[in-house]
TrEMBL record:
GO molecular function: alpha-L-fucosidase activity
SUPFAM superfamilies (UniProt xref): (Trans)glycosidases (SSF51445), Galactose-binding domain-like (SSF49785)
GO biological process: fucose metabolic process; glycoside catabolic process
A Pfam family this chain is assigned to: CHB_HEX_C_1
Domain called F5/8 type C: residue spans: 527-679
One cellular component term from this protein's GO annotations in UniProt: lysosome
Family label: Belongs to the glycosyl hydrolase 29 family.
EC number(s) stated in the UniProt entry for this protein: 3.2.1.51
Keywords: Glycosidase, Hydrolase, Signal
Protein name: alpha-L-fucosidase
Keyword Disulfide bond: no
Keyword Amino-acid biosynthesis: no
Amino acid sequence: MKNPNFVLLLLVVISLISCKEKVTEPEAVGPVPSQRQLAWQELEYYGFVHFNMNTFTDMEWGEGGESPKNFNPTNLDTRQWAKTAKEAGMKGIILTAKHHDGFCLWPTETTDHSVKNSPWKNGEGDVVKELAEACKEFGLKFGVYLSPWDRNHPEYAREEYVEVFHKQLEELLTNYGPVFEVWFDGANGGTGYYGGANEHRKIDDATYYEWDKVTKIVRELQPEAVIFSGGNPDVRWVGNEHGFAAKTNWSPFTPGSGNLQNGDEDGTHWIPAEADVSIRPGWYYHAREDHQVKTLPHLLDIYYKSVGRNAPLLLNLPVDTRGLVHEKDVEQLMKLRKQLDKDFAENLVTDAKATASSEAGSNYSATNAINGDTKAYWMPKKEIIKSNITIEFDELQEVNRFVVQEYIALGQRVKSFTLEGKINGEWKEIASETTIGYKRILRFDLVEVSALRFNITDAKARPLISNIEVYKAPLVMEAPEIVQHKDGRISIKSYDNGLEIYYTLNGEEPNKNSKPYSEEFLLQDPTRVMAVAYNPGTNSYSEVSNIKLDIPKKNWQVLNENADAAKIIDADENSVWTKKGKLPQEVIVDLGKTYNLKGFTYLPQQSRWPQGVIADYEFMLSENGKQWKKVSEGEFSNIKNNPIEQLIEFKTTKARYFKFVGKRSADDTEVLGIAEIGVITE
Ligand code: FUL
């Protein structure tokens, strides 16, 4: 190397290379995910199965003294669970191998309180094994829920039990193949059977279970598995059981901060949230909830507020006493799948052009954000935080979904961003939001744009954006909801904006030639209201809603109780009035004037733990409020299992006053409970 020009050239080349290298090495910011956390995050949507002793005792929290003889599914088919989950688009299933009552779904060596002593398969069965195999067959991941709290075990709260708990974990993680998640519940209620002691036992959750040891066991036996809760090494609870993550959702989290919902911007550890929710009110199967399987709009909301807000969705299916996912649940799951497939059918960025306000070199261009490769990302120059990507479409596009992902392997950075649309040549703000994380999905009303501009307005360091997708999701064509208010106002709502609503009051099928609905209207007389949603864009109709409304409750009054009792005639199904005290108990209502009555309706409380659901009743009428005539008496059959609105007809009778008597409640508690009561006029 005698030639000085050559040396100079070499130096230039070396410095160019090292410059480039500096660019290729963006530094991590804050805590970063482990490989197992990254793999888990990409699953996005998987199923929970609550199936165990509680399924057979019709409980949510068994006490621990239940006999194994109760456990006897008639038609258990884990392949049906796996097939359902697979077709629903889920990536795995987590099974309640042991819930708080302590019953083990596998023939554990640690206790007799297991399938071994149940009549199911003469004690030869193993639900954990059957499900692990079914998951494998259907290409699903398999996970286990093992309740630390054990209301059956005699040694619970003492040292011996901790060993039992660890041993159970070892069995589950050794004998059933790969496990992707181990779920430890936080509940530690206190009272229990505890081998017959039937007492209250307290433990310190932070120390009793020896979480460090638990983590060690999991890491050794299943290095790929993430741990939910249980000292929070990998995944934290989202802070509610609605399946909703917060809009601001940091995966960094400082254990002990209590910020389960939002996480901590400057959290010390990478502990992302997981959103768990049941497809029904309860986690376990109860026939009484067959009519309360979540609707498509509700499930969609859950999806967008979990997966769309940086939290994988763990959706629970309460397997029934047959040992099957109930038909109604399957139906709703498939509705959700179908709609999501439609929502994300065609990614409109594929033919678009992306340019950035700043790029840290050609390896980090804006194109990386729209090329479908989530390992490549857009990155602005080092000192730049406020920056943007513009996506220009070939032709005008109608859009209503925006998906964006950060390259989280190097930390979660974005604190806030906005989305603008170029509408008629002018930039207009569509959304202004906070965090992104692994994935954020925005839903907004349909806009026609020639371009979109995605602006990072604040971040912990320059943003790394690995993916952007844009869609035009079809409007959800659910039958409109017709609501009658107490004063007789009628409102009709469709799920999505952008749909037209048409209705009739004469019993004829509505269509776009019927009356368009634009605002609430008044109805004083009993009327059949039918309504339909219409999408002018696709020239298609929803199903028709069809309800027979009776007289409004405007001038009604409860005569024999305090003001709170007005909740039973406020036309709001969510407000409930209960009265404790020995049954029978009665309520008297004045209708304000005399009608020809031919029936009444009774709606019990619709919540997860309904109170005072009446099973035996009497119904009386009076013209003057003094002389009463009994017009109906009997039992609301099956109301315990199926607490829907009861409709009872009787011989037409003239009356201004009615008296509803609750004689016995379905669970034999001394409570009268009413969500809503109504009459049927002639
Ligand atoms: C809760 C438990 O107590 C429920 O029974 C259910 O298992 C749910 C997923 O977690 O904390």
